[in-house]
Amino acid sequence: MKKIIALLAVLIFVTACTPLNNLSLNEIIERNLRANIELSNQTRSGYKYYLPRGLTILRIKDFNEVAIGSNITYYMYFDLISYFNNVRREYKINPDAYFSMPIIHNDGFGYLEINQVGKHFFIEIMYNYAKIEMMVEEHQIRKAVQNAITILTTVRYNDNVLASLLDRNVLRSNKIEFNIFDTVRNVESTYLTSVDTEEEERSLDTDLIR
């Protein structure tokens, strides 16, 4: 019980100690990395993570998930195969991006890249062998990054379960080809587009049944 209270205290400090609008994106990333939160409220086959308050899971398909909160949709992908094989890739800063930075903490690595698309901003953030994509308005950027990095820094993998999934070829059966190490830099994300297409197909099927 004491451990849970302590973890909640850390989480409250990370998310509410300083007004979000007064923090730079670098500061938002750094304080979440330093917090090292060991809290989770979402458990899947092979991994678990903490979903921040105010976010709701909209749908789950294989190791792809979609969450929504405060008019922001979070497209999430967990790359269990790359984690299990300890794949590493260096991120090169994009000088043409609205914002671009590598994320490095101890053995963890990833990146945050934001590109402007018309009046909106396409956010790609990868860390801990998981990636989240969001399309937001400018005033939503800090909130979106805060929620995304909270999720990514709390992802924990279960090696025994992953080994079993690999033995049964479950991980390799995912039909969506999605490389978390490469930035998309526009709305034509392979994952984002494929998930939206599948959702539209399900809606059409439902309408036909009716």
Can you describe this structure?
The chain is 35% helix and 28% strand. The chain has 210 residues and is of the alpha+beta class. It has one domain (2-209). A hairpin with a 2-residue loop joins strand 6 (99-105) and strand 7. Helix 2 (25-35) runs parallel beside helix 4 (141-153). The chain is globular and about 45 Å long.
Brief write-up:
The chain has 210 residues and is α+β, with helices and mostly antiparallel strands.
What is the structural class? alpha+beta
Number of helices: 6
* Cα radius of gyration in angstroms: 17 Å
Largest sheet descriptor: 7 strands, antiparallel
Which term fits the overall shape? globular
Strand order of the largest sheet: 3-4-5-9-8-7-6
Order of helices and strands: HHEEEEEHEEEEHEHH
